[in-house]
TrEMBL record:
Superkingdom per UniProt: Eukaryota
Region described as Disordered: spans on this chain: 121-140
Bias (Low complexity) ranges: 121-135
Keyword annotations of the record: Signal
Signal sequence segment: 1-17
Protein name: Uncharacterized protein
């Protein structure tokens, strides 16, 4: 009888392990598909009834200072405009989908269903990878994980050891057009005006779809609902390599 009980107890574990392995295989196949591996930029669509709408609609997502920001887009190049203060344009989000390593997630049982994550190249000044031994060989761009801060809900980027403590996915795209960026199956994204002037909008995850009332943001700063839409990187500009 003891043996029978142990066998019965082991059945759900075995089934769970088998299902987790199957889901990991499916997710790996999806992530390795040509569509998932194609790098893309993120453009902003905003139809909010606000005098500030034009500062958000049509912008492009960029990476700087550990966060995702909105930046005016050059209509000719489709990339960020030059810095109005004379500096170079900020680094555009240039990312793709990848499964986040389940073994690196705290308090998550193994085996467990995989989570589809999102990565992006980061500004060259933040790329601390060792220089290539060959002068003619270009340095591989460094990738960071995109995540939503579990307290503030702002979208940030960082190494795996940092991202694993926050909301790292699942990221995906809208089923109807495979264009809109989703987090946890929703397009709940908002732009928050951190600084006035048109260059100070950052990106947040509006988990409760309440314009961040739950975290007290709406009382302090202007919040506009928006969506982030994928725009594939042109073939000649694709330089992402995953190490």
């Amino acid at each position: 009888m003891v043996l029978d009980l142990l066998t019965l107890v082991a059945i759900p574990t075995a089934v769970g392990a088998s299902e987790a392995v199957h889901q990991q295989r499916v997710l790996d196949e999806e992530a390795e598909s040509e569509e998932r591996q194609a790098p893309f930029y993120l453009d902003v669509f905003c139809d909010a009834k606000s005098s500030k709408r034009d500062e958000v609609h049509g912008a492009i997502v960029v990476l700087r200072e550990g966060k995702l920001w909105l930046w005016p887009k050059d209509p000719k190049t489709g990339l960020p405009k030059k810095d109005p203060d004379g500096g170079p344009p900020p680094h555009p989000f240039t990312g793709l989908y990848l499964p986040f390593p389940t073994e690196d997630l705290p308090h998550r049982p193994i085996p467990a269903p995989p989570i589809l994550g999102l990565v992006s190249t980061i500004p060259p000044t933040e790329n601390t990878s060792s220089p290539s031994t060959s002068k003619s060989r270009p340095r591989k761009p460094k990738l960071n994980w995109i995540y939503a801060d579990k307290k503030s809900h702002e979208l940030r980027y960082g190494p795996r050891a940092e991202a694993r403590h926050h909301i790292i996915g699942p990221w995906d795209w809208t089923e109807d057009d495979e264009q809109g960026l989703t987090l946890c199956d929703e397009e709940c994204i908002v732009a928050v005006e951190e600084e006035s002037g048109g260059y100070g909008w950052s990106v947040y995850w509006d988990r409760d779809d309440d314009r961040l009332k739950g975290v007290g943001m709406e009382k302090e700063k202007r919040v506009l609902r928006c969506s982030l839409e994928r725009r594939l990187v042109e073939e000649g500009r694709r330089a992402i390599e995953v190490e």
